[in-house]
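[agent] plan:
  1. take the single chain provided in the ticket
  2. run structure prediction with default settings
  3. attach structure tokens to the ticket
  4. add a short note for the reviewer (M.T.)
[agent] executing step 1
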Amino acid sequence: MEAQSRGAGTLQECLEHAIALDPSFALAHFGLAQHAWILASMGYLPAREAMPVVRTEAQQSLALDPGLADAHAMLGIVAAAYDYDWTEAERRFLMAVSHDPVPSNAHSWYAYYCLLPTGRTREAVAHAQRGWPQIR
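[agent] step 2 finished; step 3 output follows
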């Protein structure tokens, strides 16, 4: 994954350095997954380049820490936005929102990436409100 700006390169380098120091650091792998997703969602990296990195790094973070709910949510985004696999997306998002505590973005990502595109608007609104309490 090629860095697109000085800040993006620095973050990627820091995460890669952390993994080099401790390959079992699950959050660093998740950080690389999220970093690649952000670059793709902002248009700095084509999805065809970013999403395989997102998938691989999120899967690696779960191999190291199966309870990392954020990684399940990130794989839900990959399944929904890249694979169009709504069954897998739903499964991953439900795994993410069933954790205690629920990651701050899990409900909103579930609403935006899975529920709205599949026409489940009422459920999407309910999850969005749980993800963003200020919109109630």
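[agent] step 4 note for reviewer: Residues 79 and 89 are 5 Å apart (CA to CA).
[agent] ticket updated
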